[in-house]
Design goal:
Chain lengths: ~140, ~130
Amino acid sequence: MSVTSEAVRKFLQADTGAGGVMALAKDVYDTFAPEGSDGPYVLVRVQSPAIPSYTVGGDGTPYLEESVIATEVVDQNLSAAAAEDLAARIKTVMQDAALEISGQETLWCRWRSDLDHMTIENKLPFQHKGQLWNVKAGPAE
Amino acid sequence: MSEYGDAIADARHELAEAAPDFLPNRCTILRRTLSDDGRSGKAESYAEAASDVPCRIVLLPVHLLNMLVGESVKEQGRFNVELPYTIEILESDRLLIKGITYVISGPTNDTSDALLRVLLVTKLKAV
């Protein structure tokens, strides 16, 4: 977990309207779902930690940090339909999202690529749908 | 068949008929139906195929494992379920026993001389 992934998790949990993330998902979790969770659920994880950028000759304070955050829908379902709908909603609301990152100002939240695969675990099919996001943040004003 | 062979076959037949009387639990067999999900995929649903089927569920003497299933931690106990040998069961079926749904992992004694049908199962979800 990072301050950025935590901001993404809270942002998605705040989408509570009709057709929103919380209407389509049971919940949004950090990295893994708790034991006994019913799907579909959303996992938010840090794919790449915040990488700082510095000004040459500066005081060593990064002017920018860039993270890659994964948002992954998991659904124990032979059909991908429910997971696709939820992933599509996340893709819509996350683009240019005004994330509230602790101690930082969000400069950029843009789609990077999709995630899409299915696994069979204990003879149960699981759909995995989602995205990777580039998130850039600078020091809070 | 020899005289002894006939006697053994008769005894086995009687044992197979009597075996369900010693199964203490009852289960419902749920059978899968596949349908078009409208997006080039299949949706699955389960409906009751048989109810009040005698059974016995036995936790196998192996350690419970906490495994990651669907990116969620689940305690994976493995169980044997014994059913009457004559019962029709498919590997895609599920069993509902005392309110808990079990997924069939495979048969453990698919032999012609078994008195009971024994299936290896896991819980559908941690409870």
